[in-house]
Design a protein that fits this description.
The chain is built from 2 helices and 8 strands, in the order H-E-E-E-E-E-E-E-H-E. The chain is of the alpha+beta class and about 230 residues long. The chain folds into 2 domains: about 50 residues; about 170 residues, Porin. The chain has an 8-stranded antiparallel beta barrel with strand order 1-2-3-4-5-6-7-8. It is elongated and about 75 Å long.
Length: about 230
């Protein structure tokens, strides 16, 4: 083969190789373009089908608000005898969804039964406990639209223990302050759209009672609770 023919053969071979590379690149670009175009039309034709399953969340974005207030009575053991506490509570209700609601509020309660001091104070044994407590209340309600549903609550706050005469003519100046935590569970009945009755149990735990012969164990323990709620719940 002459030198000129050899040079022509090399050039021709390089040209074929270059055209083949260009053809492959062109084919790849056409494939990618077709894929993108088809994907666009699929998404445009069925945009909702791709996101048919929405994530489940506690709050669905349609939060409604309400509020309530009302009297409350508690029954339990106080210093070894039956005790009754009378008070009230109220709160701001946030309906997070159809099934879940929480309320933030507060309550206060006072002991109305007579409980004599375990040991005489300054020689006087005819003195009685004067006790009250209150604090912040957090409550969770499940499926409040049902006639009877359940709530879980928790009170955290403080109280004060004093002494009084039986007829309340004289009250001591000394106060024994203490911390209190009271979780509870209740069943709630929807009487009307604005009135509900709650009944359940709670456990009162005190810390810091150590005066006048009383101890924390005298005011801690299981108790029953009845509360009347009036307000707007939805």
């Amino acid at each position: 083969m002459s030198k000129s023919n050899f040079t022509f053969f090399i050039a021709y071979k390089r040209s074929i190789k270059s055209n083949l590379t260009f053809y492959k690149m062109k084919q790849s670009l056409l494939f990618i373009s077709a894929f993108l175009v088809s994907g666009f039309f699929i998404f445009s034709a069925h945009p909702t089908d791709l996101f048919a399953q929405q994530p489940q969340t506690l709050v669905d974005g349609s939060v409604t608000h309400g509020g309530f207030g009302g009297p409350s009575v508690k029954f339990g053991d106080v210093a070894g005898s039956a005790g009754v506490w009378v008070g009230g509570q109220g709160g701001w209700i946030m309906n997070l969804s159809e099934h879940h609601a929480i309320s933030l509020g507060g309550g206060g309660y006072g002991l109305v039964t007579n409980h004599r001091v375990p040991v005489p104070v300054d020689g006087n044994g005819d003195l009685y406990a004067l006790n009250g407590y209150g604090g912040f209340i957090f409550e969770y309600t499940n499926q409040s639209y049902k006639l009877i549903h359940f709530t879980v609550s928790s009170l955290i706050g403080g109280g004060g223990l004093l002494l009084r005469e039986r007829n309340y003519e004289d009250v001591s100046d000394e106060v024994n302050s203490y911390f209190i935590f009271e979780p509870g569970m209740n069943a709630e009945l929807n009487v009307t759209s604005f009135f509900r009755i709650t009944a359940g149990a709670s456990y009162r735990m005190t810390s810091g009672i150590s005066e006048f012969g009383f101890r924390d164990s005298d005011f801690s323990g299981l108790q029953g609770t009845i509360t009347l709620k009036f307000g707007g719940f939805l």
